[in-house]
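Lab notebook page, bench 4
Experiment: in silico fold of construct C2
Operator: M.H.
Input chain length: 715 residues
Purpose: comparison with the prior construct
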Amino acid sequence: MNVKRTSVYQHADLTRLLHPASIAVVGASTRAGSFGERVVINLQHYGGRVYPVNARYERIGELRCYPSVAALPEVPDCVVVAAPREAVEEIVVECATAGVGGVIVFASGYAETGKEDRVAQQQRLAAIARDSNTRIVGPNTIGLVNAPLDMRVTFMDITPIPPPRRHAIGMVSQSGALGMALAQAVVRGVSFSHVLTSGNSCDVDMADYISYLADDPSCAAIACVFEGMAEPERMLIAAERAWQRDKPLIVFKMAVGEQGAAAAMSHTGSLAGSQAAYRAVFRRAGAILVDDYEALCETAAFFAKARPPKAQGVAVVAASGGAAIMAADRAEQFGVPLPQPSDPVRDVLLAHIPEFGSARNPCDVTAQILANPESLNACADALLGDQAYGALVVPQTYGYAPSARRIPVYDSLAAKHGKIACLAWQSEWLEGPGVKEAEEAEHVALFRAMPSCFAALAAWNWRAAKRAAGAPKTTSMPATTIRQARALIEAAGGRTLTEREAKEVLALYGVPVVGERVAQSADEAVIAAGSLGYPVVLKVESPDLPHKTEAGVVQLNLRHADEVRAAYRTITARANAITPPPRIAGVLVQRMVPQGVEMVVGARVDPLFGPLVVVGLGGILVELLKDTALAPAPLTHGEALALLAELKGARLLDGFRGMPAVDRNRLASVICSVAAFATDHRDVVAELDVNPLICTGDSITAVDALIVPKPQRRT
């Protein structure tokens, strides 16, 4: 039986396992190619004490071999189990009884097989760890590396990782092969403090590794290759710990399928898929997400080196006009400002750049630098000294000897001004002169592609703004409001609330809703329309028709009584023709809200992450366009505004074809109210939609709504 763990291990909990003074290798061997042989060879440079354990040997190389863990001269901090699966459990029990700090299990064939007995074997290992306070890595892991100790606890023939420098990365990966592959960046000068792989994670997992590295002084930034977890909320606890320690966490999330929301009733439910949810909650915790595996190391290396930005603006200096244009394109794509230099800086640029160059930002110094290399240095110095810029981007278009000679110059200039220089490597000579020098420089970050460079700069600015904003202040409601809303939800008896009922609930939270009357006949509909004033809308009200437009039971822009009568007959006939017949509570008569920008604001209570708010362009095209932004609830006003800014169609809010601009602050307040409702009622509500929310100037009106309760538990 699995026991859910709601906390993460801290640095002290894992020190004996990950930074041990002694290591025992159970299953140590002289058989060529065996795991036991490979581990002992990999540990020959380790600075601590190594104890081979195997009853068949008296010595392995120069090391004495012991028959069992109990026979060792001391209780080892860490035990590596290089034995077949059938023998693992007994060995782990022996280790737990002896009081070892942690165990690393290579053997595979456990829960990853899906076989019931193998799953049970893994669960028994988890129980041993839980009951004995002995930490376990694996099973089905390839091990880990601690560079400060030159400790290579793995059976792989890995690339040696030298002692870490000040800007070292801690690498965490569920996939052992990918983690070790990324760490091969050491050959081009990237510095690593650790490579920690988790395998099946019966005990220690990704969240624990991140928590450990957050407090480890040898690591300046954490890079993470993440697939998924049964308890991802623990990953967020670890991410928040890294945030509290101001240690950047950079995540590449794979396994991005969106099938989790396939059965959702609301538009929101179908849009808030698993990948979108992960991105949103990681962002809330302050983690940086990269879209590409190839960008992970260079982005982490950048954050390990870069101090907080002194300004959001970025300067670009290039010896190629084409590269300068490419940089400007990517800056616009990622929203990185390229302000123009101050007059004194522009004077310096004009003094060093030929008339066919460009003394602007981006700055094109042209190929004249071949004749006068100092011109590029002078321009870089001037731009780094400008208060408008927090970083300097230098596209390196050609790999040759002068490339390497320029790196110390950029490094010293960036250090002088307390900033960072970003070398955007454009040459296909991927390991050409200058690459290693740039990776090893403390104030120069190397990027293999212009997009990843500007994506990192945008994330850098975003992270700094988030830290400056401090603790969020979210919308909260009075207890009486929460109780009134809960009573209305419970009155539905577990069924989906009708539009009228849903709007009544949301109105308590300050969501502006359109007024309406319920008609049970065409004559009543005409009377209601006359009372409300033409034009009007007619809709069949039914808890069984969550998407009324698709069902054909909505009629718009009705301007007189005859149209109302005809519309009533049409939509009721369509509703009665549906199989199985829906429950019909009547026909809603509403005033026709003037045309405006149609938005959708909704929430889904995710079983892993809790309430998630979705904002997007609404109406009937919401799922086709899928122009949405998502965030965990509750929301601050600033977070709601940021969601609106993320939308591709955000410019529609600023006025389109003569329509007035939408009051974004008022719209953000409505979004915060929906988020507060989702938070307050997360235990009884599964999904909710406000769609469309029609926005015109400062007039914002919800003309339809849907609330889907969670299934009631049977007692």
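Observations: The two ends are 24 Å apart (CA to CA). DSSP finds 24 helices and 29 strands in the chain.
Next step: discuss at group meeting.
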